[in-house]
Amino acid sequence: MVTIPTRDAYPTLRLSTSPMTASSPPIHVATLNVRYDGQRNSPIAIPPTGAVPPAPRKPWEDKYREQAWAVRRSRLVDALLSLGSLDLIGFQEVYASQLDDLAALLGPRWAHVGVGRDDGNKAGEYSPIFFNSDRFTLVKWKSVWLSPTPDVPGSVGWDASQTRIATLLSLADVHGGTVHAVCTHYDDRGVKARAESSLLIRAAIRAFVDEVEGGGDPGPVLLFGDFNSPDSEDGYRNITSFDPLPSGKQGFTFLDAYTHLSARRPGHIAQSRPYGPKATYTGFAAPGRERTTRIDFVMLAAADGGDSARGGYSFSQYAVVDNWVEEGDVDGFEGRWSDHRAVRVTITKA
């Protein structure tokens, strides 16, 4: 497994010189806010079987309550892997001990990059990207803090309640071409911070990709994570806007997989509609007891001067993977394995 834990060793490797072709296989992507481990100072080792049985539920306890990370971790990884192949996974709210758990549960072919947001090393939450190292080779990566000082670890932006981060990654595909991926987690309280974060990363991602590609063939640019911003808010509107950036810098516009799914039509066999619940945030509550919303997204950068995706890709599959188990699994686990549902997307070369 390839792991780069520190921010002062961002490697740059030679890009693939072969462009992606129409025969390039699809790229399968998932994003999930795992919910931080509130008991991370007393970690529980992963048993040989992977799964930790849940504690017996007391008569007064809600089955949808938040259960320990040690109980939830294997269920959420199993849920991600149970629905087919994955090539890239973005996680949010991941502390260092949780990062180790996810790496162990996913297995040795999964490499990952990312840093703790508080110090650019291991302190605080990560927004890591895991990638299939059988398919991809690391080209370059970096971290950007969502603040007016994006290169300063731990910096807080605008009206945000805490430090926020984005992880930028470029990969060489064994099938040819370069794939770019960005995982982020916006602030949950600062409305202005979410709006400004979108403007910031549109420019930051563009500068990063332009540097990596050096004028070569454009590859797909995937952006995913927990934006804490519904589609009615400027955090979402700014990331999907075709308007020039107020700063005057070059930036990408991003297309939302949910609204740009290449759906079934006469002569085109495809997924009929986005699958699963619309909302991606649920909280640890029973259905109907908490306001739910769609705030977790997978997006593709639009091609310059057009409304189609960069690199000739389109969204061919979209699904929201529910985060709860009804009536108990083989070990008796019942309830939610996170307060967010996972989003799974497939992009296909036209």
From TrEMBL:
Gene3D superfamilies: Endonuclease/exonuclease/phosphatase. Signal peptide: none annotated. GO terms for molecular function: 3'-5'-RNA exonuclease activity. SUPFAM superfamilies: DNase I-like (SSF56219). Residues 32-300 form the Endonuclease/exonuclease/phosphatase domain. PANTHER family: CARBON CATABOLITE REPRESSOR PROTEIN 4 (PTHR12121), ENDONUCLEASE_EXONUCLEASE_PHOSPHATASE DOMAIN-CONTAINING PROTEIN (PTHR12121:SF36). This is Endonuclease/exonuclease/phosphatase domain-containing protein. It comes from Vanrija pseudolonga.
